[in-house]
Amino acid sequence: MKKFLKIYKWSGLSFLVLLLSASCSEDFTNRPSEDSISLDAYYSSNDQVTAATNGLYSRTWFQFNNKFFYAVAEVGSGNMYTNSSDVNAMRTFALNGSDPELNNGWQALWANIAQSNAIINFLETRVGPNVDAAVLQNTIGEAHFMRATAYFYLVRLWGAVPIIENNLDYVSTPAINTNPVEDIYKFIESDYLTAADKLFAKVRGANYANNGHVSKGSARAMLAKVYLTNKEYAKSKAMAELVINSGEFKLLGGTELPNKSFGDLFSYSNNNNEESIFALQWKGDGQYGSANNCNTQFGISTSDVSTSNATYGGVFAPSQDVLNIFSSADLRRKATIMLPGDEYPNVKIAPSGGILIVPEADEIGGQGAGAAIKKYCLGVVNGNVTGPVDTWGMMDNNTYIMRYADLLLVHAEATMGGGANTSDGGALKSYNAVLNRAGLPSVASITADDILKQRRLELCFEGDYWFDLGRIERSKAIAIMTAQNRGDKDSAEYFTPDQNDFLLSYPDNDVAKNPKLLDPPVPYEFK
């Protein structure tokens, strides 16, 4: 399927203004060139307007999700181990601005912002009279949501960055200052609030096909996490409770969905389930970058348990540190980490089609970790369990950016209000719901350390632990990472980050084009 883009090259941050482009999956509307058809005629129906944001759920995120996200958030935090030269710099806190994957992640986030900006600024004037106002505003709300999410990653990873509301404002003057972190968070909060105002309300039901796009609840849940990051505990608690009380989301395997389980979250057939707040929507279409690469990059590297047409695998593995954090009673362990002897009836091997029994530690391959990652690892094609596979061994299972268990832990922590512990009934209800789904008993009080640990256990390999460590007292975070064994199963290795390692370097090529990235941030003039 053709993808039509209007591209404005920006020498400073290499931004692409992707004017209302479409993703390349079969679900997305094929758009003719803007030069050959009037936009008013083109966006003449509700379906066409609804499809305008489809690309923002997949391809614009690919180079962020493909390697960079895990190389920083999971290897950096000490959850994952790798010795692959393209992704191992954060294991030793040696990542710098010349790193290609750092550049890929940076560019992907700005591509999301550029495409969101195009929709926010231009879509409303390019629709026909038959488009419902509510549909139009919902689509614009999705763009505000995506822009806020991209900035939420940028500010936590790089700190001060430029706030861009309309890329066309800078085509002739591409050198631009960064803005202060507090201004970026103000902008993020404004975008999520706008999104919550414009987006449709939903209740996530069993018809998963209707759950893919974000909703009011999605925006409010992400905003609760932003407030928590900024230690605005009362706002975070109130926003989280608004979402919880709405009944939009449910835990798979919780009291409302007892026939599902934690492990079901990561199967293809459960894409866009009741727990999914926001997930990237992958759809293989024959083009590189349309599907999810985790099945090969997380799995056992031997050919009989990788996808049938992939000749590589096991780029990322569990760290030695993370192998020891799950108790024997925790149902999440087997759905998170594959250990020798584990059996997975739904994971098929080639060529026999038998079930996967994890081999001995020395035979697992990959990175020599003696274990493999189970989350997002589906095995060879197995009907609706895995969905299809493309030429590069990539599959269509979603990638979570936020799910309901995360929000429940946000609520528990926000209720604690920055204190050391709590026995508040509301906090315990949220916290214990996550524990009980994992097969663990309820507790009568919780500490800040309990929540940090449960967030690591629940969200391991989903890209959150790095940001959680970034929220706590810096000396404590450094002590945690210094104590982590960051080696393989045969050789322990330890590394100590310093204060500067918690923010990434700007890409060298962008600094060369826009030296103002290194200047002091300039306060943003809000409109």
Automatic annotation (TrEMBL):
Domain (SusD-like N-terminal) ranges: 46-228
Pfam families on file: SusD-like_3, SusD_RagB
PROSITE patterns recorded: PROKAR_LIPOPROTEIN (PS51257)
Segment forming the signal sequence: 1-25
Cited Gene3D superfamilies: 1.25.40.390
Keyword field: Cell outer membrane, Membrane, Signal
InterPro entries for this protein: SusD-like_N, SusD_RagB_dom, TPR-like_helical_dom_sf
Residue stretches making up the RagB/SusD domain: 275-517
Protein's cellular compartments: Cell outer membrane
The keyword Membrane belongs to this UniProt entry's keyword annotation: yes
UniProt main location, coarse: membrane
The family this protein is said to belong to: Belongs to the SusD family.
Protein name: RagB/SusD family nutrient uptake outer membrane protein
Source species of the chain: Flavobacterium frigidarium
Lineage: Bacteria, Pseudomonadati, Bacteroidota, Flavobacteriia, Flavobacteriales
